[in-house]
Amino acid sequence: MSEQGAFINSVKISDDFDLEKLRISGQCFRIKLLPDGAYRFIKGGHVLDMKMSGKGTYDVSCRDEEFADIWHDYFDLDRNYRAIRRRIDPSDTYLRAAAESGKGIRILKQDPWECLISFIISQRKNIPAITAAVESVCRSAGLEIGGTGEYEFPRAARMRTFSDEQWKAFKLGYREKYIRRAVADAPDMESLAGLSDEELMDSLTAMYGVGIKVASCTALFAYSRVDLAPVDVWIKRVFDEQYGGEDVLSGRKDAGILQQYLFYHARVSG
Predict the structure, then answer these.
(1) Which pLDDT score is estimated for 259?
(2) CA nearest to 260, candidates 223, 197, 217, 210
(3) How confident is the model at residue 5 (pLDDT cuts 50, 70, 90)?
(4) May I ask the CATH class of domain 1-78?
(5) How many whole angstroms separate alpha carbon 89 and alpha carbon 208?
(6) 245-252: average pLDDT
């Protein structure tokens, strides 16, 4: 039993899927490991507790309809990650090792607004600090989700009502001005979903304080643009140390997924 309530259903997932690797993959800052070993995911006004119960079988705290409507796409379950790993050139031994290390990571399709603001917050912060900042915003201004003790990430309209004192309490530092401007100028994030990759990146980087890295993360983790690969200090180090400085992901099919393997492997292998 999870803290949200009894597991009421089970699902089967035959492809690569690892709850702990998803939690520490750096793409989402609100995944929680509960005391009973279950993992908690939040998307919009929905909370899911999930725990492995057997090989490829998971207990979940929602019925089939909700899993199909919300969580199937969230976990990108229509994409065959095993096939993507198999297509990696055997001669690229580092990427092959990274894919094996990161096997089970999937690209989570997150709420676009929450994803954008979370990655603006993430600039020059470590993952625990990002997690604390995002949680602070949610608990201070988000709506509680059905008595679960979890809170929605506040919409832009709600964030526009924050006082200067509320903003300061979040301790966002220099990022505060970028987020406040994003809140003031917030586009309809859902309307961006129909844009091409190039148009989406142009729209995101046109926002004040949103550079290529934040835009790439938002495009990948909120809009499932898996051919786009964010390049941070970890990935740049991999390029420099393993590929002579060459960006081996640029223009590559499924580059965003391969980037996640490289990011995870670089962090866990030191």
Answers:
(1) 98
(2) 217
(3) low
(4) alpha beta
(5) 39
(6) 96
Q: Which of 1.10.340.30, 1.20.1260.10, 1.10.10.10, 2.160.20.10 is the CATH number of 112-223?
A: 1.10.340.30
Strands (E), the chain: 9-12, 32-33, 39-43, 46-54, 57-60
Which of 12-21, 39-48, 164-173 is the least confident region?
164-173
What's the order of all strands across the beta sheet hosting 32-33? 9-12, 57-60, 46-54, 39-43, 32-33
CA–CA distance, 55 with 204 (Å, rounded to integer): 40
Whether pTM exceeds 0.85: yes
Q: Does the pLDDT of residue 24 top 70, yes or no?
A: yes
Q: Are 102 and 21 in contact (CB under 8 A)?
A: yes
Q: What does the pLDDT read at residue 270?
A: 64
Where does the chain hold its CATH 3.30.310.260 domain(s)? Answer: 1-78
Mean pLDDT, rounded, for 1-20: 83
Residue 33: both structure tokens together:
């490991």
Q: Which DSSP string corresponds to 72-110?
A: HHHTTTTS-HHHHHHTS-TT-HHHHHHHHHTTT------
Tokens of 244: 């002579």
Alpha carbon distance 108, 79 (integer Å): 12
User: Tokens 């993360």 appear where?
Assistant: 217
Q: Which two tokens stand for residue 80?
A: 């065959």
* Lookup: tokens for 189: 């994030």
- Start-end of CATH 1.10.340.30 domains in the chain: 112-223
- Could you give the CA distance from residue 263 to residue 102 in angstroms, rounded to a whole number? 9
Mean of pLDDT over the chain: 93
Alpha-carbon torsion, ordered 166, 218, 192, 108, to 10 deg: -110
State the Cα–Cα distance between residues 123 and 233, nearest whole angstrom. Answer: 11
